[in-house]
Amino acid sequence: MILFYSLLALGIIALIFGAVLGYAQIKFKVESDPLVDQIDEVLPQTQCGQCGYPGCKPYAEAIVNGDDINKCPPGGDATIKKLADLTGLEVKPLAGTEGEASEPVKKIAYIREDECIGCTKCIQACPVDAILGAAKHMHTVIEDECTGCDLCVEPCPVDCIDMLPVAEKPDTWRWQLNSIPVKQVQ
């Protein structure tokens, strides 16, 4: 009989707390801006901080509040174009590249495998799971997945990770439009 009353009391307490939480969810609901959510979906979600904000959501909020749309190196030109379409703003070159003759060189992480001790700190730091490896075994980077966010370099205790330019391949090669001479017609 004591077990029955104990379970009944526990059930009543759970019901009361459930009702209070349900009321609080309705009463204190925070409405978010749908444009912030749409911009956040376009961003690469690497949470790398290269834009100057602690993550993609704060950067999306800053864009809605008037910040530039060209501060996301992992997203690159494709993300800038999508953001321009979404916000109605002008497409600008990636921040930090104004006045340069060409686009910035995309870099990816490279692990010197003979120096890797298999600590897994770089795997834990990688926001896009571009590093393969296991504890006490060497690690390697999946080049096609690496966004070049540079977050894996700092936690490495043996400093065996370098950021190297992406090798030019037929599928990554692009015309350097600024280097083509243009004749002026008179």
UniProtKB/TrEMBL annotation:
Provenance organism: Catenovulum maritimum
Chief localisation class: membrane
Keyword Thylakoid: no
Keywords (A to Z) from UniProt: 4Fe-4S, Cell inner membrane, Cell membrane, Electron transport, Iron, Iron-sulfur, Membrane, Metal-binding, Repeat, Translocase, Transport
Gene3D superfamilies assigned to the protein according to its UniProt record, in alphabetical order: 3.30.70.20, Electron transport complex subunit B, putative Fe-S cluster
Example GO BP: electron transport chain
NCBIfam families in the cross-refs: PRK05113.1 (NF003475), rnfB (TIGR01944)
Protein name (record): Ion-translocating oxidoreductase complex subunit B
Molecular function GO labels: 4 iron, 4 sulfur cluster binding; electron transfer activity; metal ion binding
Name of the gene encoding the protein in the UniProt record: rnfB
